[in-house]
Amino acid sequence: MSACRAVYPAAGRSGVGFDWHFRNRRTGSEEDEFESGNILNQNHRTAKMARVEGVLLIAGGALSTRKLAQYATLADPTEARTLIKRLNDIYDRCGTPFRIEQVAAGYQMLTRAEYTHWLDKLHHRQAELKLTPGQLETLAIVAYRQPIIRADIEAIRGVACVEMLKQLMDRGLVKIGGADDTLGRPHLYETTRLFLETFGLRSADDLPMYEKLSRKIAPATETPSSDAA
């Protein structure tokens, strides 16, 4: 009986990706999948599948199936989706710590959720994504109530949010998505594709308790200026 494991390239090597090997439990010998005639057919990885893996491993973000097909020299986006499914089937059978997930408008190689806490400590990823409580609160309001104007965000938070919104826009997590139809046509704020990729979401609908927390609030009313004649 064979067990599956991943062998990663040594540091400094130019190659990207990994080769699947199988270790025989009784003999302890190792056989390369592509050379052994005894490997289970369901775990066979083709050259196209290897190219898909390689592209996703170095992409640094989500790729659409069109881009993936282009970079991995596949026939079309449909073939890319088929190969992604086959690779995920292999990953599930072999118990790998990663999987190809649909994120935003594309696909990305991601670590399984059960390993995230350990890897965060190893790579200090939390430092890169660290947001202040005010930024997190503002981002959550935008995410659940988008598109939303600044006055409505401030009505929920109870404090001014100009600086918070600017910082979130500088981080690429929030953007101006248009203008509201109310007086003065204020900016409408919404989350970005980077927001979805950062938090591993396909869309805002994947946010926890989205249906309950995304209920619209009444538009904020402008307070007449005390300087008016």
What can you see in these coordinates?
The structure is a single chain. By secondary structure, the chain is of the alpha+beta class. It folds into two domains: 2-123, Orthogonal Bundle (Arc Repressor Mutant, subunit A); 131-213, Arc Repressor Mutant, subunit A, CATH 1.10.10. It has helices spanning 47-59, 65-71, 77-94, 113-123, 125-129, 133-145, 150-157, 162-170, 193-198, 210-213; strands at residues 2-7, 19-24, 30-32, 98-103, 106-111, 148-149, 174-179, 187-191. The protein has a three-stranded antiparallel sheet with strand order 1-2-3, with no helix packed on it. Strands 6-8-7 form a three-stranded antiparallel sheet. Strands 4-5 form a two-stranded antiparallel sheet. Helix 1 packs across helix 3 (77-94) and helix 6 (133-145) packs across helix 8 (162-170). It is elongated. Residues 1-40 and 218-229 have low confidence and may be disordered.
What class, by secondary structure content?
alpha+beta
Order of helices and strands: EEEHHHEEHHHEHHEEHH
CATH topology of the largest domain: Arc Repressor Mutant, subunit A
CATH superfamily grouping of the largest domain: Winged helix-like DNA-binding domain superfamily/Winged helix DNA-binding domain
Highlighted features:
229 residues, alpha+beta, Arc Repressor Mutant, subunit A, 3-stranded antiparallel beta sheet, 10 helices, 8 strands, 41% helix, elongated, disordered N terminus, disordered C terminus
